[in-house]
Amino acid sequence: MSVSWSVQPCLPRSRWLVAILASSLMAGCAVGPDFKRPAPPEVSQYTAKPVATTEATEHVAGGDAQRFATGGDIPGDWWTLFHSAPLNELIEQSLANNHDLKAAQAALSVARENVLAQRGSYYPNVSGSFSASRQRQAGTIAPTPSSNAFQYNLFTPQVSVSYAPDIFGLNRRTTESVKAQEQAVRYQMIATQITLSTNVVAAAVQLASLQAQVDATRELVDINTHMVKILRDQFAKGYAGGPDLAAQEAQLAQVNATLPPLLKQLAQQRDLLAVLVGKYPSQAPDLSFDLSKLQLPQELPLSLPSTLVAQRPDVLQAEANMHAASAQIGVAVANRLPNIVLSANAGNTALAMNQLFTSGTGFWGIGADITAPIFQGGTLLHQERAAKAAYVQAAEQYRSTVMGAFQNVADSLVALDQDAAGLKAAAAAEEASRRSLDLAQRQSQAGYANYLSLLSAEQSYQQARITLVQAQASRYADTAALFQALGGGWWNRADLARDNDEK
Question: Residue 49 pLDDT more than 90?
Fold first, then answer.
């Protein structure tokens, strides 16, 4: 991604300038480098060890194996793959009402209008004017009208036309830069939309996770409450000691203490969902999500590495910024070259309104002006150098964005692979702790086990339940993250694809 250009006249300066002007008028050239789209990275895979299929965990929500379909296309409404009508409804509401997305769409409208405004530089400027005055001239020095009156009225309607031939491409490079800036804003808007839909999915999954953790904690509260009741009855009859009862009451208090933080997070997650869909927290819909009601996509499309740079909106935005910087080099070069302005005007001047446009009142004029910078104190030279440095900066930012995109995909693939393994381990731990707790409860009630064993079994079960729920949520959330990392399928959405065709 390097650019170079040079002008090496082999003629005398005056003849060289004439030749340049003539050839520019005929060829319509634009000084500065012509932007070339960067080639995709020469890599064939995202991770050092390719992942084809994840592990499966039977009889657990979110435990299905996931297969990566290399080269598969991503649907524009990828969230429908979770098969949740409430989730689909939330995302549609967010796309219609979210204020951050509306702000991004308004910014795109601003950029488009700026492009249209800049394109006006291709056309002549036409203006009309009309002046009316009453004046008195000094008789000793001033000319007078043909009537020799020193005090008179003067009416002058006039039309003026000016046009600056774009000889060196100043207007074309400026328009090219503004158009590239519009594309950068457009891809930023697309990124906002993809991030919004991903955040809604993540928030819904987290809401379901927290709800499941609350349910698990309340179940543990019920278990411990029941055990406290049994111990109190046994203590009253002399079958249990005070330390055992105190230990069980302490365990109940500890479990109860874990409930308010979960309820706080649950309420905050509802508030977040409300804001994402464009509502105030007090207007939050009374929605509840269950992880068991979400279907984990079993086949995940995996774009080829060579196509990722053409899909990710942040990469395309960085490319557009690079294009704009390239065009600005041409602008800086053109500012150091001569500029020609053609002008013409025509009108009438009369002493009375009824005399306008009669014989002898008309006037006209045509002209051409050429200006060229001779000495600017080095300003234009350093502006050109700054434009070249800005292009290098944009190119390096583009490379960094591309590497970050590949890292996002690689991290998502690794996360999904490890999530599946983690869910399998969490499910086995939860099942083992459930059996251990059930056995400890029966032995405790029969008097065959001490209460320290029961407390230990309860603590293990509580942690295993929460770990299982968190592992389930990770699989759903990281699946959504993979869709986001691959570009979110925006090219398959009718509205965004139409805009892409119009660029």
Answer: no
